[in-house]
Amino acid sequence: MFFETTDRSEASRLSAFIRNSGLDKELGENAPGFGGMFDNVGGRWTGDLHMMTFLAFYNLDEEAYWNERYAGIMEVRKETHAAVELGNMILEESVTDIALLVPEELFWFGKSVEQNFNESIWQEGFANLITVCASDWDAQKKYYRNEKSKLVINLSKMEISREKFNAVVLETVDFKAMKTKEEVAQMFARLFSAFYGLTTTVGNRLMARAILKAGFAPDLLDLSRLEDPATRLFRDNLYLLQPYVELGKGLLEGRLSDLQAKEAKEPGAIACEMERVTKLAKERCLETNIPNLQAESAVPLPIVPGSASRKPEPGTIGNGTALLVDVLKKIRQFAETEKRKIVPFIYLEGEKFYGLRDALIDSGVEWVMQGTGDQHISYQQVLAQPRRFLPFIISFIPEKPFPGYPAIGFAKGYLHRISSHMVRDFFAEASYQALTEKRASSGGKGVFLRLIDSTENISLLREMFK
């Protein structure tokens, strides 16, 4: 077994469990290994780790896979790989948006590329990459047609006009033409080399740009001089780091720790808070820091000051579809005026989320993300470059949330008897805080909407974005 986390007990629950329980001594050479990480470096470049499982499960030729990967890696290092040329072109042509067009079978591979690229490339001069299924191209192509700064990387068999689109083909993937799983493994080896090579090319050049812009020479860097201004610039722009990894988690921890302290003094405080949140969802309450955005009865929505334990009093948009549509119209007008990309972050799970996401994509929404507590995964570019985006955070709350349970084992104390649905909603609220209050000086703007998890509201949201 292999844990991709730091082997420091004070920083990792997995490490604490293995080391403090004595399990490492009991298991001896069979004890789990740890992939040493510094400041969460490189925790997402995991394609080959996943392929190890695939190769082992199907008893495939791991050496053949590695030889294909190694050949691609060496081409990238020698700067002869097509991905290097593509990465250079992205920067030299000031590409701001990339559609990764994939066949249906490659959708989740595409999402892994999307995450890795967007989590790495967030510096000044970045591009936002979105995975688009070939079946969704008709709904999405309007964003890329006749736009020189927007690139289409085509992995599908679909023909894309080079006259109308800035399009390139890295490799045409046709699963039906592959007769063996060995061919599938070789294909993934080539694609991992290509997209990791693309990301490192763009990342290295953006770091060099930042250092040059400040008047330093990248080739003269001495990284052993930690306090040197050039070294600090290198670290500030290092694409392997995750600078916002604990931001939302810290806000959540503060909120729940305050709630636990209140519960100790006033038993029932946790239940009251869950009731309050559910009531806000029933009233379809909206919070935003967009100036002059108004909802029902022209009630102005507040700009709430930053506080990890605040209790916002948002405006309500009531029960009418027309009001929801009107609010979205105003949000879109604001985004268009400020040249921001609207990004719905939806805190909903399973098939409900997938169905809603697919419906919104079909309606022409450019980028739809599933809400998560890990801001570095979903929100990295939005946090780093807030003026380019307008996050629309939507938290779905069941009318009858799960009960809370005692915090035992790995669970942290502030989660004691907290409903998992409350945790999810508080993560949504913490994300809103992180993207607005905590990034206000950099232009962070956003919207936070609570809704009851019901067929009616999911359908209402679909209508809202049509």
Give a nutshell description of this structure.
By secondary structure, the chain is of the alpha/beta class.
Describe this protein with a few key phrases:
single chain; 466 residues; alpha/beta; Rossmann fold; 3 domains; 6-stranded mixed sheet; 4-stranded parallel sheet; 45% helix; globular
Unreliable residue stretches: 294-313
Approximate helicity band: 40-55%
Number of domains: 3
The number of helices is 17
Strand content: 5-15%
Oligomer class: single chain
The tally of beta strands, per DSSP, is 12
Shape: globular
Your description of this structure?
- With 466 residues, the protein is of the alpha/beta class.
- It folds into 3 domains: 2-34, no CATH class; 52-211, Rossmann fold (3-Layer(aba) Sandwich); 247-464, Rossmann fold.
- The chain has helices at residues 13-21, 23-27, 47-57, 62-77, 82-92, 107-120, 137-140, 181-213, 229-236, 247-265, 269-282, 321-337, 350-362, 375-378, 380-384, 420-435, 455-464, and strands at residues 2-3, 33-34, 97-102, 128-133, 150-154, 166-169, 285-288, 315-316, 341-347, 369-370, 389-397, 447-452.
- Strand 3, helix 6 (107-120) and strand 4 (128-133) form a beta-alpha-beta unit.
- The two termini are 47 Å apart.
